[in-house]
Design goal:
Strands 3, 4, 5, 10, 11, 18 and 19 form a seven-stranded mixed sheet that branches. Strands 14-13-12-15-16-17 form a six-stranded parallel sheet, with helices on one face. The protein has a two-stranded antiparallel ribbon with strand order 1-2. Helix 11 links the parallel strand 18 and strand 19. It has two domains: 190 residues, Quinone Oxidoreductase, Chain A, domain 1; 132 residues, NAD(P)-binding Rossmann-like Domain (Rossmann fold), CATH 3.40.50.720. It has eleven helices and 19 strands. The chain is α/β, with parallel strands linked by helices. Bound molecules: NADP nicotinamide-adenine-dinucleotide phosphate (NAP) and zinc ion. Zinc ion binds next to loops. The site of NADP nicotinamide-adenine-dinucleotide phosphate has 33 residues, from helix 1, helix 4 and helix 5. One of its GO terms (molecular function) is zinc ion binding. Its cofactor is Zn(2+). This is NAD(P)-dependent alcohol dehydrogenase. Pfam families: ADH_N, ADH_zinc_N.
Length: 346
């Protein structure tokens, strides 16, 4: 086994704290990554605090991982030592079910393995990226361009692909008006991608203080979603809404801003189920769609798109000791726009 260190939650009630643990030995098709940066996704908060369901503890969160390959298995061919590698929300799957064959390994129906809070194919718990090193099957490691700022690349592995994938699926682009709800980690990537794909982007936010930044990110308009007059003025404006909200909220006002035949794509995962009025949907033939992360081929496509267009996440680089402050700030919506842990500080 390989000695590793990281930050773990020992229970859903205890704060994250330093923890020594072991990674599996490097298998024939594995690579070992020395982790340089790991983004802080709101999912890390939901999971370490059992907001969705009972987790596997101790839990080392983190699924926005970027680092350098430090060792390769006997039959691993994809990377050389010293290459950059990125890992997102999953580290294994069966490769044979229909979802895996479709390149949607995140939905593998046989043996999916999330990056943390899950069991690997060897039956042992897997641990995430708030850590100095990780061993991953090379198929689940992505190539990263040397051209981009590495700390800003880390969040692409979850926030990036989670917003890129639905925008591509629904062909959002030129001539479309796109509303992004919630300007956090996912939301700000939604603004960047929407803009890069040619859509006219508006941000719907509960935080008036984010307006200037939203415009810098590429949003043409900014609406305070708590302001009824502004929401009324936006009635039937958008072809698409991309909802990235992490907390419990009323979705019906957001549905009202869709045009007839508009599409509401949800990627946020608040703990409480929505109450959707049937009138909000029926009046205007509206569609509600979901989207979960993205598969291996599309994640690499997104990373290549980012390298080509010079897109990275806007981040606040933090010392791992400040992770609690980062979580508290994210709970208050005070994030600009992704916290990324500098693993040198571990
Ligand atoms: P984040 O950085 O904390 O941003 C969430 C933003 O949502 C906040 O900054 C805030 O933006 C808005 N918000 C929060 N609570 C709200 C409330 N009660 N009402 C209205 N707006 C609220 O979170 P994130 O990392 O982007 O993640 C967002 C959600 O997506 C989380 O639930 C996460 O688990 C989920 N997620 C899903 C997938 C997937 O595969 N579908 C992947 C990753 C994450 P404003 O200040 O602008 O209002
Ligand atoms: Zn995530």
């Amino acid at each position: 086994m390989i000695a590793a260190k990281g930050y773990a939650a020992q229970t859903a009630e205890s704060p994250l704290a330093p923890w020594q643990f072991e990674r599996r030995d490097i298998g024939a098709h594995d690579v070992q990554i020395e982790i340089l940066y790991c983004g802080v996704c709101h999912t890390d908060i939901h999971l370490t605090r059992n907001e969705w369901f009972e987790g596997i503890f101790p839990m080392v969160p983190g699924h926005e991982i970027v680092g350098r390959i430090s060792a390769v298995g006997a039959h691993a061919r994809k990377f050389g030592i010293g290459d950059l590698g990125g890992v997102g929300v999953m580290v294994d799957s069966c490769r044979e079910c229909q979802d895996c064959k479709n390149g949607q390994e995140q939905f593998c129906s046989v043996s999916p393995v999330q990056t943390y809070n899950n069991l690997g194919h060897d039956g042992l718990p897997v641990y995430g990226g708030y850590s100095n090193t990780i061993v991953v099957n090379e198929d689940f490691v992505h190539h990263i361009s040397e051209k981009l700022d590495l700390a800003g690349v880390a969040p692409l592995l979850c926030a990036g692909i989670t917003t890129y994938s639905p925008l591509k699926r629904w062909n959002v682009g030129k001539g479309h008006k796109l509303a992004v709800v919630g300007l956090g980690g996912l939301g700000h990537m939604g603004v960047k991608f929407g803009n890069a794909l040619g859509a006219e982007v508006t941000v719907l936010s509960t935080s008036p203080g984010k307006e200037e930044a939203a415009r810098k990110l590429g949003a043409l308009h900014f609406i305070i979603s708590k302001d009824e007059a502004q929401m009324k003025a936006a009635f039937k404006t958008f072809d698409f809404v991309l909802d990235t909200v992490s907390g419990n909220s009323d979705v019906n006002p957001y549905l009202s801003v869709l045009k007839t035949n508009g599409i509401y794509v949800n990627v946020g995962m608040p703990a409480k189920p929505w109450e959707v009025s049937s009138f909000s949907l029926a009046m205007g033939n509206k569609v509600i769609a979901g989207s979960g992360a993205g598969g291996l081929p599309e994640t690499q496509e997104m990373l290549d798109f980012c390298a080509e267009h010079g897109i990275v996440s806007d981040i606040e680089l933090i010392d791992i000791k400040d992770i609690h402050t980062a979580y508290d700030r994210m709970q208050r919506g005070d994030v600009r726009y992704r916290f990324v842990i500098d693993m040198k500080t571990l």
